[in-house]
Amino acid sequence: MRLMLLGGGSALGRALVHLGAEADVSFLAPRPPERGWDSASLTRLLDETRPDALVNLAYYHDWFQADTLDAERLANQERAAERLAELCQHHRIILLQPSSYRVFDGTRATAYSEKDEPAPLGLRGQALLRVEQSVRALCPRHVLLRFGWLYDDTLDGVLGRFLLRAERESVLALADDRRGNPTLVDDAARVMLAVLKQLDCQAPLWGTYHYGGHEATTALAFGQAVLGEARVYRRLAVEDIQALPHGATPDAAEEPQHAVLSCRKILNTFGIKPRAWRAGLPNLLDRYYRYV
Prior knowledge:
By secondary structure, this protein is of the alpha/beta class.
């Protein structure tokens, strides 16, 4: 297949290109316009290139890593994603669209499956759900891939902001009753590449799938694991991590308390097994500290 990657310069895009090169899989990764991809630029791009499959990471940082987002920016991205789904259907292009655990409200204590009804809390989760709905309605040949807690090696990503705080603050407070699947960027890229390879076999595997790293954990326990590895590379100011109830955290209104995803469907359909996030943590932090 001729594969196109929007957002090739993002952390997940770079990881996907790197893994693809190792597997002799190449991507056409066009440079985005100065103001980013919008409906008009996407229309021109796909009219000219006509790939067989497209991975949409055009808004990866905003959707998965940004601290805050304004509603207007999200609305523009939603419209562009909707137009992209229309174009993919028009040109018979397979669309691989990532999404997030944020489409759920976190009231379910057990793992969320693809059959559970979404009910997002914040603006980002609501926007992601509307993008999902557009993709399903407009482009039948799609794979929606909902990831758990995504962490990459960028300075302004979720992990980077946490590590910067650890260098400046002596006490950090993390929720000990917020649970999810930490999912490292390299593992997410591995999963996306595995899905693309099987779609190349013409298997009709369209639909929605969940993926998160092996071993669900709390925000507190994950933070402790990260700091344990980080101290190998840098002297940290943080001396104490305090347990905080989810309801007392600054982002409780937008972040689901329970965000564990069931990965059974992606295992049964694509044979993709979850990998332990702890095993990939040293490599991720090594890359982070190499470039900060």
